[in-house]
Design brief:
2 domains, globular
């Protein structure tokens, strides 16, 4: 018998952890001489009360959904993929090559081709760490971190020496053809002459990320492969006894994880900048770790956590613009959320377990 109901583990524990993180964040804001209530109101106003704010919040949310799902799929196989940042960078190379060298007639075809290219390049970048983990015992945490730096160097070389247009001083590729440009939320939802979502980078890729949530749920909980991945993650010994190959599951789980991380570049490279630039990932690969932790590695939880971190990112930009609170404070808040939902998870979980156990004993008396 479990010590705590499933709903409490999935909902109550993250909410209490988030509440504690909010209290600690308020104390930090007080410590630098600002009003935490006014700061929170400004974040809500800038990120949620205006259509442009929503556009930026959902843009960041899209990135975090892909990277959160990438971390979650690997984690179900007991693999800690820290390489989402590098996989997204290399995924962007796939997007650029697909969009620059194939004459797409319409964005509906271009987004499909770009998604395939991003997924293949991201998966390819995850393959070597996966193989080294499965075949040589090299820890995937170390190799994926190292591959992040290698990816940044590879991307820099390609942008300066290969993809940069002649005569340009900017380390970036040429702008993709207009036929490949994805419609943003202003194009999709704003009435003619309206300013709704104007200037916001949220685009049709958001719906691609929602589809990815559904597909990952189907994969992990409704397919034999997903069952093998979860079985391997629970007990490698039992999985081997059942005939599940550790090499196969390790490589496949990391390939899927890398493909999801790479697909983030469809949003940043094709949807927002419409060319390949040097720092389009903006740390989203690392934020995805926190999103997966807080979302309990479930697509619904990841969607909710991605919305939260999207709100924090956009709200933090508003704070930096209109107050003396530095944008780096948002990194502190994110770190507090990670600390309380990850490293100090038992600080919340254990008292709740004792509470539910005492309530259960009273019911049986």
């Amino acid at each position: 018998m479990t010590k705590m109901p499933l709903w409490a583990d999935a909902i109550l524990v993250p909410l209490i952890s988030l509440f504690l993180a909010a209290i600690l964040s308020a104390l930090v804001i007080l410590g630098i001489g600002e009003n935490p209530v006014e700061a929170f109101n400004l974040m809500v106003d800038g990120a949620l009360k205006r259509s442009a704010g929503w556009g930026y919040t959902l843009y960041y949310t899209t990135n975090y959904i892909f990277t959160g799902l990438a971390v979650a799929v690997a984690f179900h196989a007991r693999l800690f993929n820290i390489g989402g940042e590098g996989q997204a960078m290399i995924g962007g190379v796939g997007v650029a090559l697909i969009c620059l060298y194939i004459p797409w007639p319409h964005w509906t075809l271009a987004i499909f081709g770009a998604s395939v290219g991003a997924a293949l390049f991201g998966a390819a970048w995850a393959f070597i760490p996966a193989y080294l983990q499965a075949k040589r015992g090299s820890h995937v945490v170390i190799t994926t971190i190292m591959f992040n730096y290698i990816a940044f160097s590879v991307l820099g070389y390609l942008l300066v020496e290969v993809l940069r247009p002649a005569g340009s001083m900017d380390p970036a590729s040429a702008t993709f053809p207009e036929a490949t440009h994805l419609p943003n939320f202003h194009d999709m939802f704003a009435p003619e002459g309206s300013r709704m979502f104007r200037g916001a980078p949220a685009n049709v890729t958001f719906f691609l990320s929602l589809a990815a949530c559904v597909l990952v749920w189907l994969l992990i909980w409704r397919t034999k492969l997903g069952y093998d991945i979860r079985s391997f993650g629970k007990s490698e010994t039992a999985a081997k006894y059942a005939g599940i190959s550790p090499l196969r599951i390790t490589v496949i789980a990391m390939l899927i994880s890398g493909a999801l991380a790479g697909m983030m570049s469809v949003n940043t490279t094709l949807g927002e900048s419409e060319r390949l630039i040097l720092n389009s990932t903006e740390g989203a690969g690392f934020v995805g770790i926190a999103v997966a932790l807080m979302g309990r590695n479930h697509p619904i939880g990841i969607l909710m956590a991605a919305l939260l971190f999207g709100f924090l990112n956009q709200g933090g930009a508003e704070l930096a613009l209109w107050t003396n609170i530095p944008r780096e404070l948002i990194v502190v808040i994110q770190a507090l959320v990670i600390l309380l939902t990850g490293a100090l998870d038992n600080m919340v979980r254990m008292p709740l377990e004792r509470l539910f156990l005492s309530l259960r004993k009273k019911d049986t008396v």
